[in-house]
Amino acid sequence: MRQQNHLGFWIGLVIVLSFLAIVTLIAAMASLFSASEQSAGIAPPIIPTFEPAQTSASVPTPAPTRLLTPTPASTATSQCKNNAILISQITSPDGSSLQPNQRFTQTWKAQNTGTCAWNARYQLVHVQNERLSTASPVALGSNVLPGQSAELKIAMVAPANPGQYISHWQLQDDQGTRFGAVLAVGIRVSLPTPTVCMPQIATFTADRATLNPGESTTLHWGAIINGQRVEIDNGIGVVAAPGSRVVAPAQTTTFTLSATCSGNRVAKSVTITVSASGQPTNTSVPPRRDILGIWANDKYTFQIMDVTNCAGAECQVRGEYAEWGSGPPVPGLVTGTFNVDTGKIVLSITMQSTTKSFDGKIDASNKVMSGQLTGAGTITLIRQQ
Question: Which of 163, 189, 215 corresponds to the end of one domain?
């Protein structure tokens, strides 16, 4: 038994020594191999080493990668600023009265107070309330530099229904961004006031208001305003105005001149009294000189429209006057007296800034009128056909 224990000890020792010998041999061979590789220029193999993992708090976070977003093509609005102020409203001041469906052009005057130039692609756009325009947006159509002013115009039309309307507009750049003052226009739509067509008869007279049986007299009427139809009763019928008509009533008769327009009628009357047979009348007017009508030369025109209130040979006359020069004619109103026996005429001419007189005579042929006119001396006028 003791002998066996010694045998085991030696066997173990041999094993250990053999192991150490093998390790020593391997180390020697490795050293020899390393020296030969270094002498041959071969790099030794990299043997990775591992370190304990660090916590997340100690690991630095890498900076994120910045992705560039493409910038769309635009005007200089990214480098400049758009702005505008309203200077004045040139047309359609607030409260302007318009008729239904009436067309008009709204114009504002605005100033470019920004640093961007307005180009032809800038627009006016409707932003609030009634549009009053058939289009929105409306192109500006011109370039306006900073500091310059421009008239901004929009074609508009009034609504069909009466009422108060307001429309708001604003400038917009070529990128669709609105800017500047809001431009407003306010209108009132009203139905047109119906026009009443009322005739106006200036005069309706007779040379003589009293006649003997078998005698005649002349009716005279002047111009008639708004006379769509003018007529005289007692068989005379429709007449033109101004005009005259000789009548010889067999008995006392009232003549009525009437004028109508759109159903409205105005009338004036004159009564001719026929006296008893053989009874003299004191108001007879011999049918001699005649002044009614137009008398003119190349510079002056008289139009005698009425001869009235004849007492004997002296009658009152009324008419119009025109004085022709390089410009429009200068008008005047004529009043005065005329003697049907002698042709003597005395007229007063009332003009806008002065009064003139004419003292003259009509010849026996009733074709020539001559006399003295204030400021002109002797003038001759010819009766116009």
Answer: 189
